[in-house]
Structure formats: C-alpha cells, structure tokens
Amino acid sequence: MLQLKAATFGVLMGVLSASLSAAPSPITDTQKDTAEQLIETALNSKLGYDIVTSLTTEVGPRLGGSEAEKRARDWGADLGKELGFDKVTIEEFSMPFWDRGHLHIALTSPYQQELYGTALGGAAPSKSEVNADVVYFRDIHALTEVKDGELQGKIAFVDGDAMVKSQTGAGYGQANQRRRIGWQHAQRGGASALVVRSVGSDSHRFPHTGMMSKNDDKWAEIPVIAISNPDADHLRRLYRADKPLALSLHSESKWKGEVNSGNVVMDIVGSEKPEEIVLIGGHLDSWDLGTGAVDDGAGIAITTAAAALIAKLPTRPKRTIRVVMFGAEEVGLLGAFAYAKQHEANLANHVLATESDFGAQTIWQLVSNVNPEATILVDEIAKILSPLGIIRGAADVVGGGPDIIPLAAKGVPTIRLNQNGRDYFDLHHTPDDTLDKINPDELAQNIAAYAASIYLLADTEIDLKSTK
Amino acid sequence: MLQLKAATFGVLMGVLSASLSAAPSPITDTQKDTAEQLIETALNSKLGYDIVTSLTTEVGPRLGGSEAEKRARDWGADLGKELGFDKVTIEEFSMPFWDRGHLHIALTSPYQQELYGTALGGAAPSKSEVNADVVYFRDIHALTEVKDGELQGKIAFVDGDAMVKSQTGAGYGQANQRRRIGWQHAQRGGASALVVRSVGSDSHRFPHTGMMSKNDDKWAEIPVIAISNPDADHLRRLYRADKPLALSLHSESKWKGEVNSGNVVMDIVGSEKPEEIVLIGGHLDSWDLGTGAVDDGAGIAITTAAAALIAKLPTRPKRTIRVVMFGAEEVGLLGAFAYAKQHEANLANHVLATESDFGAQTIWQLVSNVNPEATILVDEIAKILSPLGIIRGAADVVGGGPDIIPLAAKGVPTIRLNQNGRDYFDLHHTPDDTLDKINPDELAQNIAAYAASIYLLADTEIDLKSTK
Q1: ipTM of this model?
Q2: CB contacts, 8 Å: B290 with chain A
C-alpha cells in the first residue's frame, strides 16, 4: 500500500511539476533576487518605525480639515523629499469641517454616575443640557421599528454587543449599523438624543468614535453619542433589573463650515513606463482622540518606507510607484474622492492600487483583483512572500482599501495585503490608538511585504489592467 | 548509579514519611471533610459573582465619604442580613472629603493636543487656568534634588517608567513614590503644578489616580495630576527631540470639609468561643473613576460569600467570623484606623485578620504570621488548598492587607491569600476597573480558598495568637 501510494504520489508530483514547468515564471531571476533583497533590507530597517514615530510625536492627532492635518501634509511632503521621491505634490481640496467640542454624559437614574462617551462624527450639538428618560433598544433592528414621534422627550439607547474579535475584521460592517444609521430612526421617533453602544471589540472604558452616514444628503439634527462597552453593559444590567434609566448629556459637536484638506502625492518615476502608475498609500488624517498610530500612521509608514526602499535600488522599476497620503479619510473618504476626481482623465494609467489601512500587525494574506492573465504573477509574488508567513488568498477581491474604493469603482486593478486585525478594533477610533500599540518587528514585516510585491508589480512586463 | 540513586531516594522518602507521620495533624477528619465540601460548594456557586455584580451595578463608584459610599453601606448591611449573618452593624466615623471636580490638561507646545490626566487624591485646585513651560525630570529622584524656588512659574513633569508587571505587585511601592511625595519637592521648588507619569503597568490612555502622602500633616497646595503612560511617553519623546514643552491645565479638585463614612461589621457568631474573632474583609469604598469591581468589590464579594457559605453549615464554627466592609480605604485607610480605634479594648480577642484587596485573579499563595505553634495548622491548611493551585509561602509575613495594617501593628496575627496580581495594575484606580474584568471562575476559586481556610482557622482548637 505504501509503495503504491508513494508511486501514485510520484506520478502526481510529476504531473504537477510538468504543469508548473510548462508555464514560465512571470518573474525573472533578477527581479526575484531584488525582491528578496528588499525583504531582507526591510526586515532590518527601522525606517518605517521612525516614520510613524515622527508622525505621531511631531504632529499627533490630525482630524480631517484641521490645522494639524495641514501640518501633517507639510510633514509628509518634507519626508517625501528627504527620502528621495522624484516628485512630491500637495493636492488640496475643500471639505466641510466637523468639530467634536466638549461632551458630558452621565447616568442620573437610578443614581448619579459619569459615563464615558464620545460624539459620533456628523452629530449635532445639544441645544442645552438634555435630561431625559431612556428608552432601551436591544439592537439596531429594534430601533428601526420605532414609530414616528414615539420617542418624543426621550433619549434612545441602542445596545447591541461588543464586536466579535476576528482576524479579518468581519463583524465591523454589521456592528457599525447602529453608529451609521441609528440616528435616522431616533430622530424620526422624535428622540432628544441617541446613545449607542460603541463599535469595538475591547472592554476598555473608551468608546470608539467614527462617522455616521448621511440620510437624504443630511446629517443628524440631534446629539449622537457612543458609550464604551463597559458602560453599555452597565445600562443593560440596570435595564434588566427593571431600574428606570435616565441620562443627562450636553454635547458641543457641530459642523463649522468649509475648510481645506489635501492629499500628498509622491512619485518614484518609472524607468520605462513612467506614465503607468502603481498607486499605494494610507491616510494621513486620524481621528482626534488618539495620535492615529495604528489608524493610519502605520499605513503611511508602511507604504512610504516600502517605496523609499525601492527608490534606493540602482535602477527605478519600469512603472511609476506613487505613494498617496490621503487626506480626510475618516470623515468620508474625502481625499479618496478628491484624488479620483482630480486624476479622472488619467485613471486609465493607474494599473494597480492598494492601501494599507488595517493596522500594523503581521500581514497574513494577499488577495487580488487584476486581469486574469496577470493573476499568475500575483500567485508568484505570494510565493516570494511566503517566508514572511503570507498566504495567497482569492483572486477576485475587489478593492484595495477604503481610499481605493473610488479607483476600484472605475476599474483600477487592486491587490490587498491583509494584516491580522484581531486586536484592531480594540484600538480603532479611540484615544488608545497611540505609538506604543505598534510592534516594530511586525511593522517591518509589513514593509517587507509591500516593498517586494510593489516592486514586482511595478517592474513586470505583464499587463495588469487590460482584460483584452 | 541509577540503582544507588533510587535507593538513596527511597531512604530519604522513608525518613520524610516517618517525620511527617510523627506529628498528628491539627485538623480533624471532620474539619477536613467540611473544608473540602466548602471548596466544592464555592467552586459551584455564583454567589460571589452575584455580589460583585450587584455592588458595581446597583451602587457603582463609591468614593470614601460620598453619598454613594453611604448607599454602599446600606447595600452591605442589607446583604449581610439577607445572607444570614447573625449580627450586622454599621459603625460610622468622621472624615475629610476630597472631591475630584473637573480637570482639563493639554499640551500647548510644540502644538495643541489634549492629554489624558487625572488629579491625584489630596491635590489642590488651580487658582485659574495654568499655562506654563514644563521642566522635565526623568524620575522622582531627579525632582528631589531641585533647589528651593527653582521651578517658579513652571510646571514640573516627573517621568519614570511604566510599572513592571509582576505576580506579586512588586514595583508598586517604588513606582508610586512620584505620586506620593513628588508634590512636596515641586511645591518647594515653587512650581505652579506637578504632573507625573501615572503609576500603572498598562499602555491604555487612562491615568491611574490614587492618594498622595501628607507632609508635616499638610496636603499639597498645588494641582497634582497623573497623565497616562502613552501621554508620558509622548512628552518624553518630544523632550528628547528638544521640543520646548508647555502645558495648559485647570483642575477643580479640592477638600470639602468633614463628612461621615463607616464600616459595615457582620458577624457569624462562634458556637464555642464567640468572643474570639477571625476577621476577614475588603474595602467597600472605591475610587470614583471606575465602578470598583476589582478594587475592591472583589474583596467584598470573596469574603462575604466565603463567610455566607460557612454560615450555612449545620453548626457555626467555634470562633466568631467577622466580615468587615471597610470604608474610606482609598483615601488613607480611614475605615481601618476607625475600626482599630473603636475596637481598641477588644483587639486582644482578634485572633486572626486578613483582607482580600488585590483583585480577583486566582490565589496562588498562602502566607502567614501566626504564633509559631500555630504555623503547623497553616501548613496543613495549605495542603487542603493545594488542589486549588495554591502553594504555601512564608510564615513570617506580617499584615493581611491594607486595612489590616492597624490591627497587625497591635499584634493581631494574620494570614494572606495572595492573588495573582499581574494584570492588577492595568486596572487599579482607573475608569477601566469595571465588572467585565472579573472572571467568575477565578472569583469562585478565591471564595473556595477563603471559605476553607477561614472555616479551619475559626474552628481549630489551636491558639493562633498566644506566643506563650
């Protein structure tokens, strides 16, 4: 039996080898050597960690449209020049500015206790202190069934559950419905304010902020506040013990008119096809609560460092590598839409796009959406990345990150290097998003993966885009 | 060689067995059976978790001297009666009340950024907004060397390091020197305020509060504020990058005069020696930031549940078991000193005392300080606890917990069941000290250990106290 099995295995291997050897690798030996050298260099480089340290320390929090975000753009442009990018441009755009202001929220019945809350992006201020009884909703589905006017004079509280921890971040889309659309129903019900369980997987007392969705192109006209998981647990326990709940809150968050933001665009110009662009990047803005280390100082550091390592090669890759530090991502992908619009005429030359915007834990998977003939190239890239612990995922995953959405929608091919996001939603959009949460070795693994794959994609002869 | 070793080992074992069997066990078979039944019952009981859930949910934060602490005392007394304690008394005492009020602290140079700070207990308010340059001190030792008046018009910042994580909590005493005595030197130097790195082992953005020490019976006359570890890291990085640091702060914390606090004293009266008291307990007050689940709702739950399980035995143990829910521990062991004073005439009848005030992770060690003749009993108790993963520690460890200090100083024998405190200083004195941080199974292990050991100590014929 063993003999037979071995023989069968040998035959299978033979077939497999034949099949493998039938298709010549789309990566040359020189390219492979260069990619492997980039990995080695990246793993031993402190560049990425220095970049995220500098951004979080010297700029700090940088809300889309703020003066701090402007400082971040200047920081980014200076960095690009220092690191040897061939062209560095700041491309400005206009945007409405939402400011958090001061918030106070406390339990007043069954007894007085301060709660830990944060206004959600786009929320209106309270006209004065709101003191009201609470109507409890077990989840967002329960709130959507509220009758018009039923919540008059009340505060709606939408519970839910702490986000499930998952490597892929699955569960975020579902959990953040209470953050996204809750206000429409609370407002329709006539509530004076909406309070929701924060969208996060942690049990810390910091609630997670984040943008709400517009409805009919309008923002909420009431205060909308997330409270931390432990505080939401607390309200749930009191509700279940039949205690009458009441809250007092005052929020100053509001829209403050039109301001400027911008994207920092930095090119390593291609040696043979300079007009063809492989776009990588992260978003430069952060929420105002933390210093935006994980979201998305990491992405800025990973992609900038990867490109800077490629820029040090004796010869530029064939295509242009463009790092975009997107502005105002958190507040509605405003930099991404501005970029897509400002480069509309040239989108056909964007042969690939990807963004790093899921923290700095190790990358474990490479997914793609390039033309079928180019998929073999991504397969081969995955083999080169495999010593980094990265596996090949699906070849039909559209979109390379939040800021790539407008480009992907226009048909730009994408890849995505997926970080392990198991702890991401412990930190995401909280004051805890600070530099100490980044592991320099994991960050270096990210940069190694980006440097090798982006180099190969920029230097290949293969047409990534054409579907023929 | 192997043969010889085995033979030697056998001889040694023989000697050891002979020596063990020579001393009769101080624990009867019936006592042992009862202790083991108590362990079994405790491990399968939800009582302790229900108690800490009720305290943190229905009372919440309960600062020493506050109206909430008064509610906690009523809650405790009601609980004691409900659980079948034979006597339940609230023993009031008077104390000065310190109130936190509102705090605002922000970095203003090299750029504007909100910091996460908390006033330290006993601190004075700022007269108005303080805006000043920062003088950086690497640690408390550096600050103690400041010359009188040298800090005029400045804010002193004392850095240091995040607390080392350790099972025993070693490192707290050293780290909290900056919290305890820093103000004396900052004030002597003429500083407008003192800011210190929070005393905690975590990297969360919540600073840890805690009481300062008096100096010459006086409290600080300046604001004293702890900032979170990530914020302290941030200031350190900016300082090392030669950025001029300036802060803006305003704190309302202040002393508000004399109020009442109290201890809840609950007895299970002994069947043969009711006048002899085995005292166990925890502290009922908490800091105002969290809901005091780990510090020290856990201790209240563990000791009350352990005693309540013993109260259900068919016969009361020989000695009285007294549970004391101490008041106002956090603000200077005020309940402990009040108890020692109010029971001064009767302290000789306190044959043993211990407190649970180190969270609710598993107990791993039993230490003691009883009379030498009774040490063998504690050794035997440790054997009965060993299936719970508990080992016997030293027999010369004076003090059974913070609130036991005044009793131990008067010669009351003590034991201590040491919890694993590795994560304790991630939560201690922060808003994150909430119910979700308690693992019900670990809490049950604590209760099992307390129930068995306290029962055996209360029922033994051995004199725990007399040194003869």
Answers
A1: 0.91
A2: 205
